Amino acid sequence: MLSFFDDNDGESAVQPVVLIVDDMPNNISLLFEALSRLNVKVLAARDGKSAVDQARIARPDLILLDVMMPGMDGFETCRRLKQDELTAAIPVIFMTALTETIDKVNGFNIGAVDYITKPFQLGEVVVRIENQLKIRNLQRDLEHLNAELEARVAERTASLTQALAEVEQLKNQLQHENTYLRDEIHLTNNFEEIVSRSKPFSHVLRQIEQVAPTHFTVMILGESGTGKELLARAVHNLSPRKKKALIKVNCAALPTNLIESELFGHEKGAFTGAANQKTGRFELADGGTIFLDEIGEMPVDLQPKLLRVLQEGEFERIGGHKTIKVNVRVIAATNRDLEKEVQAGRFREDLYYRLCVFPVKSLPLRDRSEDIPLLVSHFCKKHGPGIGKTIDTIPEDVLTTLAGYHWPGNIRELENVIQRALILSPGKTLTLGDWTWRRPLLSNPEGFVTLEAHERAYITQVLEHTRWKVSGKNGAAEILDIIPTTLDSRMKKLGIKRP
Ligand SMILES: Nc1ncnc2c1ncn2[C@@H]1O[C@H](COP(=O)(O)OP(=O)(O)OP(=O)(O)O)[C@@H](O)[C@H]1O
């Protein structure tokens, strides 16, 4: 007995189904009998329409289709079967009487696989059916193999795509980390020493560019370490006086009794200890610029003399009678609230107005934190060579940690942190070491950070302490008394990454 779907265990698998379509009951019974020799299930239909309906439901493995039938003939039935995707793949064998004059080629054209002629030679019929069922079986195997192959290809493609995406992500991350180092810091301004891409700071630089070529006195206001001196130098360098001297006086660094002599000079014997004549800094700055840093520290009794130089460009040395005329551009800076100083009577109002003709406010680092990556890279380049360090990677997590800090000491503090990090970095990747242990997070009353920044800093601190051991004995999760998965998700949320 023929079994088309025997599997390896010898068990008979699904029985093939053959649909006989003929309007003559005699033919159907003959075929029934012939097919009973095969291990197949036989279905029958008496006309084309019910054949199509049955085929849609039963999905036979083979259809024996009479050509000449009343109503829908075999050709039309076959056409319909082939148009329907549920039945299109079912092989069709046409049955036709020898006496019938039909166009056999047409039958093959519309999808038939074979012809059987009536009256039936039952032996031949069985062989033809067997052959078609074998072919059908092989086709099924092939389809199955194809599907399996496609599934495997799809699986491989998916994992390759995933791997490619991960590589791409890694590449992006590395590129990002290196961007600040690789790119020359091309700034669209005329400030060689000043590094910034921040929008608010670009307004400050714009003001500097506008005032620099004029003769106006410039007052630079801002917290300590925000780059006031750099701005003052920029004013001078962008002015027509750039070839002449820029003389700096730090009013806070000079003892009160010496400020007048430093600024205006003295004649020999003008006071005890004045053994020689001294040229003051206003005279030295003649034709150039004088930068009076920490102007808020200027003693009140000296302020009228300063006002006179500003207004008339003249003064006398201490102990001297000769009026000295100078052409000096004045730039002043302070981190104090000068208006308050005026109200408190420590600063003359007229001098205040004379100095504040053109005030420029330097910005604290916390208001331009987008500059942190640039500044970090700038300070690596500025200080690395001095201590024999070449940094080529600034990891994202280093930048994230730095961006989360409030910077009460501004850029000067950032510069110090980077100098220290450079010393501690063992290779070419910048590491912050245990900086987080030391930074005075809450030391500055104006410098409170957000809860999130504090949490980020604190978790980073603990992780650095445990050398990035998250779970297990002496791990960060144990210290923080939270479960490791919670710590993992906090780290993800806060952007904390193991260096
Ligand atoms: N935009 C910047 N780009 C590069 N370096 C900067 C920038 N701003 C400040 N710095 C650096 O930060 C340090 C502090 O800057 P600076 O001395 O100009 O600040 P300051 O406001 O004058 O401070 P203070 O009020 O204490 O005198 C300097 O080493 C300076 O070179």
UniProtKB/TrEMBL annotation:
Limits of the Sigma-54 factor interaction domain: 194-423
GO MF entry, a single one: sequence-specific DNA binding
GO BP of this protein: phosphorelay signal transduction system; regulation of DNA-templated transcription
Residue span(s) of domain Response regulatory: 17-133
Gene3D superfamilies: 1.10.8.60, 3.40.50.2300, Homeodomain-like, P-loop containing nucleotide triphosphate hydrolases
PROSITE patterns, A to Z: RESPONSE_REGULATORY (PS50110), SIGMA54_INTERACT_1 (PS00675), SIGMA54_INTERACT_2 (PS00676), SIGMA54_INTERACT_3 (PS00688), SIGMA54_INTERACT_4 (PS50045)
Pfam families: AAA_lid_14 (PF25601), HTH_8 (PF02954), Response_reg (PF00072), Sigma54_activat (PF00158)
Coiled coil (residue ranges): 128-184
Keywords on record: ATP-binding, Coiled coil, DNA-binding, Nucleotide-binding, Phosphoprotein, Transcription, Transcription regulation
CDD domains: AAA, REC_PA4781-like
Recorded superkingdom: Bacteria
Keyword flag Nucleus: no
Residue numbers of 4-aspartylphosphate PTMs: D66
Statement: the UniProt record of this protein carries the keyword Flavoprotein: no
Protein name: DNA-binding response regulator
